[in-house]
Each structure stands twice: as structure tokens, then as C-alpha cells.
Amino acid sequence: MKKTLFTLSFLMILTSCSQRVMDFTIVSSKNLEFSKFPTYKKGNTRVSGKDKKPIIIIIPTGYPNGKEAMDRAIESVPGAVALLDGVLTYKWFYIPYIYGEYIYIIEGTPLIDPNLVSTSEIEKQNDFSVCILNREGNIEKNITLTETKYYDLKTEIFKHPKKTYRKLLK
Description:
By secondary structure, this protein is an alpha+beta fold. It folds into two domains: 17-113, no CATH class; 125-169, no CATH class. Helix content is 32%, strand content 39%. It is built from five helices and eight strands; from the N terminus they run αββββαββαββαα. Strands 1, 2, 3, 4, 5 and 6 form a six-stranded antiparallel beta sheet that branches. Strands 7-8 form a two-stranded antiparallel ribbon. A hairpin with a 2-residue loop joins β3 and β4 (59-60). The model has no long low-confidence stretch (mean pLDDT 82).
């Protein structure tokens, strides 16, 4: 009985593993503008991203990618461009001849570019909407239109731009 229990325990230890790959201060797969660093904001909560690939019977279906895990973590927060003060971990487990997984997990605090957050808000607008911006480039007013009214307004703007702009501000 003891021999069987020891053998099972030994197999369990050999069939799963977790490894800390790296700790980082800042990491990103996006283009960062270093001149904008003073305007970036640190997020309030930590985020994580995973990339995993299964092992079916004895056949791996691919290998996970740490960059893919990083992209998923960064893209989970609107406007995020990098991760701060985090860790990249590699994990795997395998139940012989049944199933297993390779997993990269990255955790960190997002670094947010406020300009990208306002850009993503514009992208969420209706396809037929008109956004009026102030001098700083922020949305002052948003008008949602039907397709026909949108194209009518577009031709009117080209014919009488100042008059149409004043009318839209009302």
C-alpha cells in the first residue's frame, strides 16, 4: 500500500509544474511614445492574460506564446499600452495518455494612455453619427442619425459649412 501511494505521489509531482519566467518593471508589445510618459496613468487593479494550448493523449496542439498572453492582458483594459510591476509564469500539467495543458500567464498593473481611451469611445459610436469636437479634441456633442439623414447632412455641410455647424451646435 505504501509503495503504491509513494508511486502515485511521485507521478503527480512529475506531471505538473509551475515556473516563474520573469519579473518585470515595465513590459509592452505595443508602440510606446516615451515623450507622452508624463500623461500616462497607472491603473488601479492588476490584470492578467493567458495563452494555453492543450495536449491531447500525447500530441501537443501547439505551444503557448508569452507575447499572446501579454497582448490579451493589455487589451483587456481600454487605452492600456503596457503592464507595470508584474510577473510572467509558465505552467503545465499532464495526465499521461489522457490530457494536459501548457499555459503562459502574465499579471501586471496596466499603464493607460488617456488619449487612447477617448479614441476608443469614438470608435464605439454608431456608424451614422456626427461628433462635434472642442478645441482640445474631446467630444463636445454626439448626434446619432439615420443613414438618409446622415448623407443629407453630409451634403449640406459641403454646401454651407458655417451655417450647418451653427445649426448642429443648437
